[in-house]
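Quick look at the format.
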Amino acid sequence: MALYTPIKGIFFDAGWTLFYPTTEHWLMPHKCAEYIDPHVFSAIPKDRKDMAFANAMKYLDDNHLIVTEEEELEQFKVFYSMLSFDLPELNLTERKIEDIARSKVYDMDNYCFYDDTASTLKALQSRYKLGIISDTWPSIKRILEYGGIYSFFEAKTFSSYLGTFKPDKLMYEHALKQMNLPPEQTIFIDDGVENLAGAQKCGIQPVLITAKPNSENSDRYPSIKKLSELLEILPN
């Protein structure tokens, strides 16, 4: 599938596009491995674990409008407390819960940037306006600075500042307003087809990235396996 010209702006998702969780789970930072016995965790029935995470995630989703890392820390204290309540086998004390929440917000070892992220953004910066549209929390600024790429983006749309998530059109409208370009002159790279569908409804050209393990291509959208492949499919 071809991209339509002219393209003047590029929006990126963050997770599984620019970087990934070193623990393979966004909400299970390294401190979890220190405090949670993997044998105990594995022995808990899957339906109970799924229900516990669903309940805790609902709390996060229902209270997503936050702008500071301090607010984020307090939210994740509640999140892990809810998991502990529903899964008492984890034996998480208040101190352990706070340590895990603090690790989630402040420990940059929980994230790893893809090898081609910085070089690709640097190559694109001179030719396009760059932006980011991410379902995330206030610590995203710290993460992007840690990866040395925060300054590449002139348009930044972070879900916690709007209190909503992709594919809500408010996310894309907020991003387009910052970039000050017609939507048809922009593209959006994301690993979720539902997020790409939301962008497409707003007139943004979608590109699927399949860097996440076990991802599959879609016949609905142009796709790339890694970020640097974007340089090959962009019109000259």
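Next, a different chain entirely:
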Amino acid sequence: MNVDFWHQKWEKIEIGFHQSKPNLLLVANFNKLKLAEGSRVFLPLCGKTLDIGWLLSNGYHVVGAELSGLAIEQLFDELGLVPDITECGELILYRADKVDIFVGDIFDLSSELIGAVDAIYDRAALVALPEDMRKRYAKHLLEITDSAEQLLITFEYDQSLINGPPFSINSEEVNQHYNAAYNLLLIESKSVEGGLKGVCAATEHIWLLTN
């Protein structure tokens, strides 16, 4: 993971990947995970996504991992929460009511630190990583969450036309990463309005990964 790349994105406020409202695919499909109120949902590489506020407002607990401390400071400020901040080995834990966010390298996060997870919502992690890191990430995610069920969002487009992130990930690759651990169902696909970064046509997919 290019740590400096992501820190510079946040410091320069180059956060076009940050959406101004909760993800519509999340809102329309999260109930398919059939979680009880109070379930704990893990968001890898969460940034300050408004999806966290949506999950909290719907009665879920959120645990996240994010590289940028600046993003998480902004997240808690926008949520109107004052976190307790503690060191956890190589990571820093920001904790408030029903929210636990680990700041640092996600590969330093262990199952012991993260605790029990009922589901994963991956909107911005797999697609943010270059191809040579995605296999390692997927394996690590399964290990630290005990293969918790997932909602996974991916993009598919002509990678030769534009550099990621987000990177293009097709169904074959999703199967390579997760077919051994889950039953995979492509729930919905929709065209990215205006094209990806306004440059090329792209399709956004949402997957349901169940045990």
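Residues 69 and 136 are 23 Å apart (CA to CA).

See the schema section for token definitions.
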